[in-house]
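#struct-help
A.M.: can someone run this one for me? Single chain, 224 residues.
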Amino acid sequence: MIDWLFDFLYPPRCPGCGQAVHASGEWCRDCYEAVAEIREITGCPGRFVQHVWTLSHYDKGMKQLLHDVKFNKKKERSRGAAPFLHSFYYATATWQWLPDYVIPIPVSEKKRELRGYNQVDILFKPYMSRFRQRDLGKWHWLEALVKVDSTRPMWGLTKRERQLNTKGAFLPIAAVKRSHILNGKSVLLLDDIYTTGATVSEAAEVLAAMGADSVNVLTLASGR
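D.P.: on it. Structure tokens below:
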């Protein structure tokens, strides 16, 4: 009912070109095919990340969608992630590896207050429960990390500057660390964009120290 009313009040448009589509979050075929590609990024950062997968190219409609969600407070545009996550959902049907826990990269409290949300949460969380329904005992959503406020914005930084900027940027949530819930478990670390890998590398190191047996990464988009 709520989704129907939202679509009635705000007729759905393709996130790429703006033309009318049937439902909120849907893309026209041309715009979707222009950016969609499930692929593994080679050259994993650091020694604690096994694999990095991304679902689209950080370009055209996807670039504008993520910019609107992160910087223009257009939370509703996060629905445009749905087709990419549906494709990933079907791709995992043949996987031999599935995560016990999915853990979002957090934002600092300052950014959360400014935006009103963590963009990674709203992009991924609505769909993870569907994954869990298919594979019982897997895909548990877990907030396990906190982001230190002292880091600089990442845009415009070189690869080396990004590595230095993210050093010590994440801390374990104390209650999660004390619970030892990640001991021997497989983790899928979620982020919106993959650039140099500095962010996920630093977060993965903290998760490994919390006992995670393996850490893989999934991002909605990447410029690589």
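A.M.: thanks! The chain is about 40% helix and 20% strand.
D.P.: also worth noting: Strands lie at 36-40, 52-56, 101-104, 140-141, 145-147, 170-172, 186-194, 214-222.
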